[in-house]
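Think of the structure tokens as a kind of shorthand, similar to the way a musician reads notation: each symbol stands for something richer, in this case the local conformation of the backbone. In the example below we present two proteins back to back. Begin with the first one, reading the sequence and then the tokens, and try to describe in your own words what changes along the chain.
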Amino acid sequence: MVRNTKQSRSSIKRRRVLQGIGAAGAISIAGCLGDSDGDAPFDIRLEVNSDNDDRVQMVELIASSLEDTGYFNTEIEDYEWNDYVARVMDPAYAEDGFVPCIGLSGTFNPESFCQALHHSENHGQCCNLNGINDSELDDMLDDARYGVDVVEDPDLRRERYDEIWEYLAEERYSSITHFDLDAAVMNTDVHGFSMFPFSESIFDYGLYSPQDEQVMWMDEDAHPDDTELSDLQEGGTLRIGAAENPDSFDPPYSTDTTSTMAQEFVFEQLLANDRDGNLYPWLAESYELVETQNIDRTDYEEYMTEVDVDDEGALDTDEQVIVRHPEDDPADGSVRVLTPAEAADAVDNDVFGMQFRYEIREGVEFHNGEELTAEHVVATVERYENSDLSAQTFDSLLHAREVDEYTVDLYAQVPDAEAERELPGLYIHSLEQADLEGNDLDPREGNDPIGTGPYVFDEMSDEQYVEYSLNENYWVSELGVDGIDWFDGSSEFPDGPVIDELEVEIVPDNSTRSAALQSDEIDITYGLTTDDLDGYDESNDYVVSSIEAGGYEYIQYPANVEPWDDERLRRAVNLLVPRESIVENVLNGWARPAWTDIPELAEENGTVDAAALEDKIRPYNEYDPERAEELLEEVIEDHDLD
């Protein structure tokens, strides 16, 4: 998921003026060399949003590092966030020779920190922005995730991911600069709040999560350091300062963090996870792995149909492609594919990789009164077809089938070590909205989002605010937390969220959000600069809650544009990224340099030995101008550059 943390300077007042432009950072590096007005052989154009203070400083530091070598001429230009996301997600962006700088928010699975950026199937989605198309790497990514061998042998899976991290260090398609920090700042009226390592879920998680006995409440008369669960108070309004306008309330058609954050008050999934990544049944009362079969994607051959491929590599079909025959070459003008109808036929004949069965909780109601059934899950899967998240959804999912009213089976294409988490990763829709066209599930299109979640969407003024109210018929409140089989927490833990109203103020400007917090216009916000965090952390009037995020900042090179197809140039620029200086001088020590490509929360399944991996990979990523100069001289000589 594309991630952005808004940061800026300005001053404005209350709701109808608490607004501003979106913000994000980007580094773009011109693909052509030797045509600058300056003396250096390499021309670099850096693109960054000027409202994002930390990222602007990071880009300036990288630009300075490049120029100090004498090999690069640099310039910096600005982009607004929403425009930039649309730009880098356009498949044609890869042809421009730019190197985007943006953030990735992953999952607890290690694949999300390498596959999303580098697998060719994710070009134009999240987050292969520059058309990386390395068949050897694709095979390595697939081999670390798919197959009975890695499903049954976690150690083998970890070994294969270690091979991927080393391969990426050698090829250097992307440079990870640092692991992000998720930090929220709140006034002392907010009690019980605790951070989650993925920013899109921090408020949904913080409001109510029985899996970690997490609940927050409002109390004006005590300091949060002096209260505990037994002091919980019900009611009140939480005023959130959001760093960006939600681009979409339509789950399959949004890839940015803020949109997902806005959706998660309303929508829920079959499973939930705690802060450590452990899975718990949620809308599903229980689930089980029914069967695993040792097949590969060639086993779908007899069910496939042939479709033409145009000169740009696009398939001539309006159907969702579930599986493409791995032996077919698009250059031949056609390929064999499996579409949803044929996938159903394959399942009818017991051709599938894995079968998971989910028993749906009875009595769960959507905000419009519909009762959740297996039909809702199947309809949701169908709505994810050909969506903005189709590549991530159908990299594993084969088919969804209603067994009976409250039982649904989800099938994986092949044995998948990450299927348990990935298959049910859908925000379940109401039938009323399951037939809407893409991006139409949005109040700006006349369709207020309807889910099963703890809060009901009330009102939105675009670019200004979003309001929610407590779902009075929330299924957890109706069931009682003791009715959830796996809950074994305190008897004092409430049977649902306790805050009545949510007011989300859209305040892209960083210092305006900070000022709004100080003037008691909002209660909590996130994404402030690390300079601001230092100040709040020293004050008794505010609380800072932080955690290392499941995400990072990265730049990605246009490996298909000369001379970026020469890995020596990519490695040279990577050696000029001053990671430690960025963390210490820009982020004031609030983050951690990324010596490897895998955050701590994914290390358990993504490496045999995290310390040994860092020892091996770190030399590829340490600041080393001398080695960078050697590589640049080789590139200049081989490309006949002055």
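Once you have a description of the first chain, move to the second and do the same.
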Amino acid sequence: MTSLSTWAQVGNEQGQMEIKGSVKGKENYVPISGVQVSTNKGQFTRTNGLGEFTIKASIGDILIVEGPELETVRYRIKSGEDVDVLVEGYGSARSVQTQKREASSSRSALTDHQRFLDSANFYKKSDFEKSIDFIARSVELLGNAGNKRELSSSLRVLGEIYMFHNQYDLAITNFKDALAAQESNRTKLLLGKAYVLNGNYESAISILEPLVRAKNMVPYQRIELYETLGDANMELSNLKEAQDYYQEGLLIAEKNQISPKEIDLSSKIADAFASEDRVIEAEGFYQNSLNLSKKVAPERLIQESEKVADFYNQKNRYDDEIQLRKKNLDELQQLPKSAASTGQGISTRDTVTSQRINYKIANAYIAQDKLDEAIPYLEKSIVEADKDDDLVVQKDATRKLSEVYRYKGDYTKALESYQDYVAVVDSLYVRKEQEISRAARFNREIANTQNRISSLEQERELSQSKYSLAVTEQQLYEETSKRQKWIIYSLIFGIALMALTAFLYYRSNKQQKLANNLLALKSLRTQMNPHFIFNALNSVNNYIAKSDERSANRFLSEFSVLMRSVLENSEEDFIPLAKELELLELYVKLEHSRFSDKFDYEIEVDKKIDVDAFQIPPMLLQPYIENAIWHGLRYKEGKGFLKIKVRQVTNDMLEICIEDNGIGRKKSAELKTTNQRKQKSKGMGNIQKRIQILNDMYKNRVEVSIVDLNEDKTGTKVSLKLKK
């Protein structure tokens, strides 16, 4: 017989509320655990070790209490109230029939446990919260004396859910707890995978290598074991060990005709050979993965083909890459839309989409300097990315299109594309903020759920005599946690505010420094031009003084060509090295026409150098050449020689040497008048300031050194090193 007594605790509540209660023996108040408590609206729970329960319900709902040892009780909820169910005849003197009922109830609980795990797996991909809730219910169902095997299963499935949602730390924690409850090769294999995904490769090898000697693993598990060990060694650059593990896994996959794993392992073996630059072996395994993919599914074939295309790109085989990607693009367009991967949002994962393939084709054309062929593919990529809301590809393709137009000299379209790029970046920034906000909420939900499951595990381990104390401690913990969260959130907000202030201050200083540098450069260039013109006009004046009209006319004609080029480049920080060398050759020619009896000259440029690939500040070398002629060679007894030599030091650095066998810096200084000694060379001073500012802005691209050419202090050598 069952009796029901209620005490109203909270009156006149609206909507859903928490109904608390208990189920106990009437004679001695012994708590009855495992009793099912539900409502007619689908809410469900069971009593814990103290016979207590908490369930959500609304006024008017029917509360149903049922179990193998009591009559089913139905009660209509009238207000927020505690419900106590007292069961007559429940005590220490229970009958054999009662014990049989308990055994039957235990079997039913195990069936429900498996049902909850199946439900959790079903919702793993589509509804994270619901999936975790089923795990919590499966753990709660086990009670304080739950079976360790079932507990291990619950924790393992929980780890798999976290691993699917990229929460690798939580996955590792739960897999370890599952192993603590019960040893299992399956759980160890999952733990090893989680370690690899989390970057703990040594830990993965440590947990998985002992499994190689295990005898009771099914073929698929053993394939995954060798594959995961191969992945860990691959990441640690142990390429030989990685290849051996992949080969072992491939042999088992081929023997058991497990096609998906044959494809995976062939592709990974090819990756390992490609890392060693063993092209022939890599191509062989890539071809094997392609042949196997043709037998599986079209989308899998496209994925493998894209990997091979990436391999061609790494080896600069752009024609092969373009041909293969175009073929993939055609096959991808034949697939139904649901089968093709979409790239919505800001995920950077390299999914196979038409916009990404078009973008990669365009990059291959650009690498070959085929800019006109690249433009249509970039435009297709932008349109398709916009249609699929793939902001990452849209951003990259728009920026690349702007660069292509700029290389072609179409600055109007380059500007339009760049403006589109800025708009996409702004959208991407907004999307990123939204995803960060969602991720923060998601992490809070994960933390709350994990705390719930951890609490259930602790409940299972606590004895009945300590349960009340545990509840009190839990309440204190939640209150303390709430305060700590407020403190932590306040600290985080303060730190974020300070970081933002520091960033804005840093950016403002950086922008101000850049503006100052640009203004200084412009000022120095405006000083350089009159200085150069003044020195050149002195040369014209010298011809006029000698009444050499023909030489003066010729000099003025060549000088006008030089000045036009100088003025055209006067607003640029850098110009192509080829153009600078043309200006220098014209300048030296002009000076040689004046002092042909004083020196000869030679300009030597290494033919292997791609001078168009390097840039140099305009009029940087002219003052050094002017010094060599006017202060070194002009006062030399006999005819001197000026040599300008350009050679390549490294792939990214050139050295330009200006050598003269003149009287040297020491002798030149002695010949200066008292007035000349008081004044420093304006041209050389400007050059030094320009180099200092440009190096500060462009991170040490120009380096100049001046030394005596000979041990007797005669001759001078100027060495200028220029980076790409």
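Compare your description with these statements about the second chain. Residues 1-14, 92-103, 339-350, 463-467 have pLDDT under 50 and may be disordered.
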